[in-house]
TrEMBL record:
This is Threonine/homoserine/homoserine lactone efflux protein. It comes from Halomonas organivorans. InterPro entries: LeuE-type. Its main location: membrane. It comes from the Bacteria.
Length: 219
């Protein structure tokens, strides 16, 4: 392996790592899911996020990434869809409070974060698709992937190596956010935040809505 190839691999590894761990919608999403629904749900959400990255990788590896990124209407459409989804997710954090104030209803929030529902197949699918949509509709992920493969990866790089890079990017997303879900659901941490879990969910909901509004304003 020549020095240029080694430098490319190192660059892809470092840039991807820094991009994945930077706070954003995916981090807020996993935080909310893990705190509200538990570790397994958080891990399934992380898997969904990784699979969402594969959407951007697919059209980029087919040579369509630069074309999409250069089309203002595509970026605008993705921005509007992503922003609407984030705002909806953020506002949904307050749905249990709204229902609790309606006549004949009680709060859907279990006190202290207790009583989480078991993770059935439908629940796993729900959090998986939440993570998938959060990433697939994120125009910043699109621009990151397109920039990575157009500016860092050489045009002479073999397709199998590019596929390897893609799998690495997916694995980084899944692994990092699964670790985040695992840390947030550690018994010691849960014992400390048990009484304020509902407030954390509200704060994360506000962050998600805020990110959606910021995404709208960025155009």
């Amino acid at each position: 392996m020549d020095s240029i190839a080694q430098a490319e691999i190192i660059a892809v590894a470092i840039i991807t790592g820094l991009a994945v761990i930077s706070p954003g919608p995916d981090f807020a999403m996993v935080t909310r899911v893990a705190l509200v629904r538990g570790r397994r749900a958080g891990v399934w959400c992380a898997i969904g996020i990784g699979c969402g990255v594969s959407v951007h990788l697919a059209y980029t590896l087919f040579g369509l990434g630069v074309v999409f990124a250069s089309q203002a209407w595509i970026l605008s459409l993705l921005r509007y869809l992503g922003a609407a989804y984030l705002i909806w997710l953020g506002l949904s954090a307050f749905w249990p409070d709204i229902r609790a104030r309606l006549p004949g209803n009680v709060s859907e929030r279990p006190p202290g974060g207790e009583g989480r529902p078991a993770m059935g197949r439908s629940a796993r699918g729900s959090v998986f698709w939440m993570g998938f949509a959060c990433n697939a509709l994120n125009p910043k992920t699109m621009l990151f992937i397109v920039s990575l493969f157009s500016q860092v990866v050489s045009p002479r790089t073999p397709l199998d190596v590019e596929l390897g890079y893609g799998l690495y990017v997916i694995a980084c997303h899944m692994t990092w956010f699964a670790v985040v879900a695992a840390v947030l659901t550690l018994p010691a941490l849960q014992a400390r935040i048990r009484g304020i879990t509902a407030w954390i969910e509200r704060i994360v909901g506000l962050c998600l809505s805020g990110l959606g509004i910021k995404l709208l304003a960025s155009g």
